[in-house]
Every structure is written in C-alpha cells, then in structure tokens.
Amino acid sequence: MKVAFKGISKGEWTIVTAIEPRCTRTGNVIPQVYVQQVIVEGSTISTIAGANYNVLIERDIRIGSKVYVIKANEVIPYIEKVDNTNVKTIPIVVPTN
Question: I need a surface site. Which of 8, 38, 69, 92 has the fewest CB within 10 A?
Fold first, then answer.
C-alpha cells in the first residue's frame, strides 16, 4: 500500500494585472488570469488558468484584486483568497462570442 503525504501549501499575496480569454484545445473559452510575478514554493508564477468566468464572478476576482496564490497539490497555481478591501479594481468583461 502506498501513501502520499502532502504538506500545507504556502503561498504569497500578489495583484491581478489582467484577465483575458483563452481558448483551450477542446474549444472552450476560459479566463487566463495574469498576476504580478511571485515565487511560490520555488516556482515563479505570473499566470493562472481560471476554471470559468462564473467562478471569477462568484469569488469576486477582478483586475486589481489582491489575491493569495498557492500551488494546489504542490503543482498547479491556484487563487485561494481574494482581498478587495482598500484597492481600486476593474470588473472583468465576459466574452459573448
């Protein structure tokens, strides 16, 4: 029997600089979130693939938001927390076509 132990992910706070649509290999359009470069667990992170635009809207992720970035399962960049207090943000534009 094999067991994999995962530690608590450590992250860093950074700022969202842009959110742009990106087409996946299957033709789905998902948001690509660009952040100020930050080093998390030895990796430099500057882009994060968003699941879909509804998730960004529900979590109130906007351009200018202060976000806490971790590496989910120690591999995939993920926005864990969002802090929009005392920051000037720009709402995202959801593509229609």
Answer: 8
pLDDT tens digits along 26-81: 988 899 999 999 998 888 999 998 888 999 999 999 999 999 999 887 788 989 99
Residue 64 sits at φ, ψ, to 5 deg, of 100, -10
pTM for this model (two decimals):
0.84
d(CA 36, CA 51): 20
Q: Residue for token digits 């430099």?
A: 44
Residue 57 three-state SS: helix
Q: For 64, how many CA atoms within 13 A lie in the half-sphere containing its CB?
A: 9
Q: Are 40 and 11 in contact (CB under 8 A)?
A: yes
d(CA 9, CA 14): 16
